[in-house]
Amino acid sequence: MSTIAQKRGFASTVWDYLTTVDHKKIAILYLIAGGFFFLLGGIEAMLIRIQLAVPNNDFVSAGFFNELLTMHGTTMIFLAAMPLLLGFMNAIMPLQIGARDVAFPFINALGFWLFFFGGLFLNLSWFLGGAPDAGWTSYASLSLASEGHGIDFYALGLQISGFGTLMGGINFLVTIINMRAPGMTYMRMPLFTWTTFVASALILFAFPPLTVSIFMLMFDRLFGANFFNVAAGGNTIIWEHFFWIFGHPEVYILILPAFGIFSEIFSTFSRKRLFGYSSMVFATVLIGFLGFMVWAHHMFTVGLGPVANAIFAVATMAIAVPTGIKIFNWLLTMWGGSIQFTVPMIYAVAFIPSFVAGGVTGIMQGAAPADYQYHDTYFIVAHFHYVIVGGVVLALLAGTHFYWPKMFGTMLSEKIGKFTFFFFFVGFHLTFFIQHFLGLMGMPRRVWTFLPGQGLDTGNLVSSIGAAFMFVGIVSLLVNIVITSVKNEKVGNDPWGDGRTLEWAIASPPPFYNFKQLPLVRGLDPYWLEKMEGKQTLTPAEPIGDIHMPNGSFVPFVISLGLFIAAFGAMYQIDDKAWAIPVLIGGLVITFGAMAYRSIKDDHGFHIHKEDLIDENDDKGVKA
Amino acid sequence: MEAEEKYTPQTWPESPERATLEGKNKFLGFWLFLGGETVLFASLFATYIALKDKVPSPEHALAKDLYELPLVFVMTMLLLTSSLTSVYAMYHMKNFNFKKMQLWLLITVILGLGFLGCEIYEFNHYYHEYNHTFTSSAFSSAFYTLVGFHGAHVIFGLSWLVLVMVRNAKRGLNLYTAPKFYLASLYWHFIDVVWVFIFTVVYLMGMVG
């Protein structure tokens, strides 16, 4: 196998990635696609900040500004943050539990391609008559009134990519429940695996309401239904409820895996076991549960009444308790540890005060009467960027540095990494801290421009300068990636020297079957335990034997492509285009036909034979 | 355990759908998927309840004008019976009796088609008699979306059952095909459970106003 895998032309590499079902390659696909959308969302953010840098600016038109802010939010949440986290989950979680792959490799690939084509469809709106312009929340009365096809792109694109995410969630849940190595009990799972587990459960239960509400929006706009049309008896508040029943858990879908990444980093670079492991697990599960109980705090000003507002206010504040448990556990993990300030650790340390600031403003908004002041101002913008950038994006950057060697076998430069950190972190606080005050002074959210002399000039300029700093930071990360890839200096199994969990015990990048022999897990932080006993390898749980592997498949790509094609038909049939209905039907035929093909064909996978595994080992011995 | 190994009724394991790791994964994954589907239908039910009888003007038909319990009763009986027959099919699957399993699955499919026929008649009736169309009011949109989503699930479930029956007609039962039959029948049960709620929430509650 290995000899075939080594020398490849460009075309065969592309074909390999188009058909791969290997979780490590799918992780790389998620990283590339998510990274691309992250840059796109970042450029949109830069345009927003340039427009708002000075009063009375007309750098972009008001209509284009609405499209920019909508696409910035939608892209960053659905097409950047979540896929990048799914990428890390794919790359690391199966290794952490000692599995050879995820439970459903085929569905894993399908999930990626659905996300990819959904995101592609959404972004094609820029070239096909205008992007969505009703905000990432796309509240129904506004989105029904939006002209052109922007909102249709939003609805169909998110629907397709949402199916992909849902499949990813189910896949990870089954993987973690069924595929753990011998001895890997639930309470020995690394925290990143735990947070992946809880986030996947949130995906499973939060995405269906979004699916339903997007279907209703689609039906209203494309097929003349009346869910949100008040004149025909409809009710626009239904959209808000469903959107936030999805939207609030979504926040935890993003932040919990980020917590997981930081937990791994804190214990690795403090050279200590994570403080209060079981309370961390408890807090994760509790946050996941409470995440479903608080959606109406986004709707305090809708007029649900004081009783509903009070209940949701109290529930919201309750979430501060498990989150506080986590913060103190991280601090106490560092306490007395022998701390190494590597780039991931710097991000982790910087994350604590940043995220706490975002949490505190969250509690402020959780007080329903006070929220009437903050609602729809820049205070809200500041708050959620503090939790999403100060929490999730810092975790993504930290995770990129931390897991890069495991995924690609080379170390990102620490020097450039510190440069990236400096510009990004300073830029982040410069951009968003002052927005709290802009909001309190009355600057409304999503506003295209403002008048001079209202006390908003300096604040907005500072904020825009901060955004430029963040941009420089991200560019330096790209430079770092290019330099590292060109140098291509290979590293060993445990490049940080202090790896604690199973993934650091195997080669970087791992062989495609991950573990030649499934490991026997004897406690929390199994690789650390082995190292403390003077061993460099894991205790095997089985003799070397044949390994069963799944076959690659092009079908996931085709299934997703079918929906992509069908979406165009669904969208243009309202313009009475003659080709639209045939395209809609043709796309669905491709999708369901590919599903049927998958179902009918026998696909038993293949075996790597014992002899090949032993040979491969010898090869490596010669090389080293 | 090899997935395509040949079995006899004596060597056939207790729970063939979960005897391999792949089967176990599918079994759990499908239950989780049904959990997500439950939330999906819960959202549709919530929407329906919120928009029930919400019409733009008084001449539009309301729930109590539309529904006729005898037809719905027949549909309920057809679908509940089809759930029972799919249980028989799984009983024979567990006893390694492929022919009887196929027979009971065929009966399940026929009953499901009967249900689908009634539903098409019902929708057609509302359309022509009451001018109750998908676009006529918020109530009608919510009604057709909820019941129509269920109907689409019935169509998908029937196609799935037929597909696994045809696909495996020559292959017979082994540990690779057993989970496929099992999951299709599990899906069929889920569709049935959803209908019980539609029967109660839409039709029975519709009659009492």
From TrEMBL, chain A:
Keywords: Cell membrane, Copper, Electron transport, Heme, Iron, Membrane, Metal-binding, Respiratory chain, Translocase, Transmembrane, Transmembrane helix, Transport
GO terms classed as biological process: aerobic respiration; electron transport coupled proton transport; respiratory electron transport chain
Metabolic or biological pathway, per its Swiss-Prot or TrEMBL entry: Energy metabolism; oxidative phosphorylation
Gene Ontology, cellular component aspect: plasma membrane
Main location: membrane
Membrane disposition: Multi-pass membrane protein
InterPro entries given in the database record: Cyt_c_oxase-like_su1_dom (IPR023616), Cyt_c_oxase-like_su1_sf (IPR036927), Cyt_C_Oxase_1 (IPR000883), Cyt_c_Oxase_su1_BS (IPR023615)
Organism: Bacillus aerolatus
Compartment(s) where it occurs, according to its Swiss-Prot or TrEMBL record: Cell membrane
Residues passing through the membrane, by range: 27-48, 68-92, 104-128, 153-179, 191-219, 242-262, 274-295, 307-332, 344-364, 384-404, 416-441, 461-483, 554-572, 578-597
Catalytic activity entry: 4 Fe(II)-[cytochrome c] + O2 + 8 H(+)(in) = 4 Fe(III)-[cytochrome c] + 2 H2O + 4 H(+)(out)
EC code(s) of this entry: 7.1.1.9
GO molecular function annotation: cytochrome-c oxidase activity; heme binding; metal ion binding
PANTHER family on file: CYTOCHROME C OXIDASE SUBUNIT 1
Annotated protein name in UniProt: Cytochrome c oxidase subunit 1
One Pfam family hit: COX1
Domain Cytochrome oxidase subunit I profile: 9-522
From TrEMBL, chain B:
A cellular component term, taken from the record's GO annotations: plasma membrane
Domain named Heme-copper oxidase subunit III family profile: residues: 1-207
Organism of provenance: Bacillus aerolatus
InterPro entries: Cyt_c/ubiquinol_Oxase_su3, Cyt_c_oxidase-like_su3, Cyt_c_oxidase_su3-like_sf, Cyt_c_oxidase_su3_a-hlx, Ubiquinol_oxase_su3_dom
GO MF entry, a single one: cytochrome-c oxidase activity
Compartment(s) of residence: Cell membrane
Gene Ontology biological-process entries: aerobic electron transport chain
Source domain of life: Bacteria
Protein name as it appears in the record: Cytochrome (Ubi)quinol oxidase subunit III
Family of this protein: Belongs to the cytochrome c oxidase subunit 3 family.
Membrane-crossing segments per the record: 28-51, 71-91, 103-123, 143-166, 186-206
Assigned keywords, A-Z: Cell membrane, Membrane, Transmembrane, Transmembrane helix
Tagged with keyword Membrane: yes
Bilayer topology term: Multi-pass membrane protein
Pfam families named in the record: COX3 (PF00510)
